[in-house]
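#onboarding

Welcome to the new folks! Below is a worked example of what a typical request in this channel looks like: someone posts a single protein sequence, and someone else replies with the predicted structure as tokens. Don't worry about understanding the tokens yet, we'll cover that in week two.

Example request:
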Amino acid sequence: MGDTRASMQFSDRQRLLYLYLREGWRRFSHRLALGRNTAFRFAGSTPDRLIVAPTDLRAVDPFVAQEIIDGRFPLAGRVLDTEGESPFELDLPSREFGVRLHSFGWLRHMRSIKEDEAFTRIRQLLNEWIASHGRVIGGLPGRPTSSLSG
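Example response:
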């Protein structure tokens, strides 16, 4: 009788182990199929900070930066002269111009100018965008765009 009880306990343990492993495999394969598990997930913890910033390979044009400071936005083959007004409040020359304006890809050109005047103008433009579009999700500014446009 003791022999039967020992074999039954062993059989129950095997069954529980089998069910446990099967459920673990099911969860793992489901997460893998959803893309939640990657090779990096098993490599260790997530880094706290970015060690090296990726290099922006897109060209920086000081002429475009100076044009923007002067209130002229050369984007998508068109030029919008703001005459001191916010470019986000004016009628835009084309839809593609609007996409480029709202994607802020033109900000990379501002790195070429080192004067405080440029930084003041950038802050002013960003504050104008926040005031006019910052609380609204939708329309042209709310549409996702490619990070390569600009």
